[in-house]
Write a structure and sequence with these properties.
Largest sheet: none
Radius of gyration: 20 Å
Mean pLDDT: 88
Structural class: mainly alpha
Number of helices: 5
Strand content: under 5%
Order of helices and strands: HHHHH
Length: 164
Amino acid sequence: MIKRFEKAEEAFLVLTLVVMVALIFGQVVGRYVFSDAPSWTEEMARYIHIFQVWIGASYAVKLREHIRVEAFVTRFQGLTRKILESISVVIWFGMALFLAYFGTDLVLASFTNGQVTPAMQLPMWMPFLAIPLGGIGMCIRLIQQLIQIWKGDYEMHKGGDIPA
């Protein structure tokens, strides 16, 4: 199940990047060649980018590519290092859970008030959905990291490589 989640995440990020580039290219061609471009392409590219950022944040947790200061923690080994790494992950998990919870509140509030996007007239809850999805994805990744820390792999190999 986790492997499917990882593959879906990667595929989503690649496909949305391709679609976003095509939309922006179409917008540029429309503006400079035809002196007119549909407004929905710009709005769609913006919403795709929002999803990329939030889903990409989850993916970056897997790759351990988020900014992190390790000067203090790397001086320790063994149980002390596990505890320090765990504290870091638990604090981050709390923030990701906060984003997932209040992002869901935002989606539900937007769903009930019926707000729509300006150009495409999509329900506004759809772009807001990226926030809880990214928060949930980060929570899943952080739980995986916590498990790895307590299995003894507190170095957490870059690139998401988890030793067998």
